[in-house]
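Team,

Forwarding the record for the chain on the shared tracking sheet. I've put the sequence and predicted structure together so nobody has to dig through attachments.
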Amino acid sequence: MYKILILAVVQGIAEFLPISSSGHLIMIGALLEELRSSVSELSESPTLEIILHAGTLGSILVVFWKRILALLTSDRRVLPLLVIGTVPAAIVGLTLKSQFSALLMNPSLAAGMLLVTGCMLLALGRLSQRDGGYTELNWRAAVMIGCFQAFAILPGVSRSGSTILGGRLLGLKNEDSVTFSFLLAIPAILGASLLALNDLWQQLSAGETLEFSIPELAIGAWVSFLVGLVALTWLIGWSKKDRLHWFAWWCFPVGAWGLCHFNGLL
């Protein structure tokens, strides 16, 4: 249980802050023997991974509920853009996970990609202010931002940092780039969560023993939700003050240390 709690806290923090949750989970698993089995289980158990993501999805729904309500009423033209923007990540994700699954669990790759994330955040900090709104995006822009999201499938690349940078490069102002970034996460996480819940139901109906008990999964989701709520609120506040590039100074030392450590230089 305590291992699930640790993973839930890491997931809640790193899912929203632009420091890559997958990269940190992989590096933690490689560094700490006690957590290695848990991270291995996490990578081999889509159910646990998706349940923790479902908790952070709850954070998105709570924080952006007004924007989501608008999507269902006045801003309905944005809905197909979210679907279109999800396609690149779906294609890249399925390809990588089916053909290069071991690569996605490589701590050296995660550490190296943290350096890339740091560079993206510095680039984000040097961009001039934009004034575009996410409701003004066209389908080409949605696909481009979706490609930034697809790149973030690599461990160590921050999904939020990458998609926020993509939105800013395409003319979105700070708040709208953050909003579209997390609205874009909803279809993918929601779809995967529904599939995971369906798998759970089928296992329970067949009388199978679950890898993790329902209370363990529920507590993990609840913790990732609460931590994610705080992290997402923090991210929005820092974005309004144009401070997201400050997180580069976390990514650079952690990534550099990880590269040295996992390649036997330390």
